[in-house]
UniProtKB/TrEMBL annotation:
Its EC number is 5.1.1.7. It is found in: Cytoplasm. It comes from SAR86 cluster bacterium SAR86A. InterPro entries: DAP_epimerase_DapF. One of its GO terms (cellular component) is cytosol. Keywords: Amino-acid biosynthesis, Cytoplasm, Isomerase, Lysine biosynthesis. This is Diaminopimelate epimerase.
Amino acid sequence: MVNFEKWHGNGNDFVIINSIDKKIRITKTFIKKTANRNKGIGFDQLIFVTLPTKESHDFFIRFFNSDGSEAGMCLNGIRCAARYIWNNSFAPLNNICIKTKTKVLTCSPVGKSSVNVEIIVPEKINHPNLERKISKKISKNFFLLNTGNNHLFIKFNSIEKIDLNGIYSELSNDIQKHEMNLSIFKKTKNIIDLRTYENGVGETLSCGSASLCVASNFLSKKDDLITVKTFGGEIIFKKIKDAILMKGPTTFIYKGNINE
């Protein structure tokens, strides 16, 4: 039996397990079975918390999409994972350094359920050939960024009624091979409305790494603030020196166990 906890960050839901209490081997079959919302538990991503691979990190965390593929990063998930670690007394209620497949982040507790995450500024993706292919299929302004996951952002005047699945389907042959998430957004002053189709998952209520990337594109000066709103809730981003500070909520739902 595998012990798990169910969490969500702004509606982006996760099953969290660890190999600290007991050695667990993660397989694609187990991930898909657990992800099934009718016959399993159901989640956007499975989070696997393990001991660090280097002394400079406190924990090593992996993220798996519901289709069994592995994601490089999930910022809604990293907040939930940090709270999971503190709640289960794997580390004191203080700053922790977490290594993921692609990034190293520092998480710190805020109040009873929120978490601050400090992360380096996302990088622009330089891929002229891909940009040309996208330009032929959409007429809107867009940009590409990476923060451990690849993201494509398309700007609209309104996003509520846009067929996001249709846009992803139209672009999938070009962006899926790059494991690229697709987001559409609307910006009004310091508020950004965002919807995201996550590669290997589909549209989610919130995507933390997409929220970070789109906010970073408009954070130019130290102490600038951007609030990103999704169907699942809000995340606040602040520019600090050469990094960005994200503040967002976490919610524990329930815990249980499931057959391996």
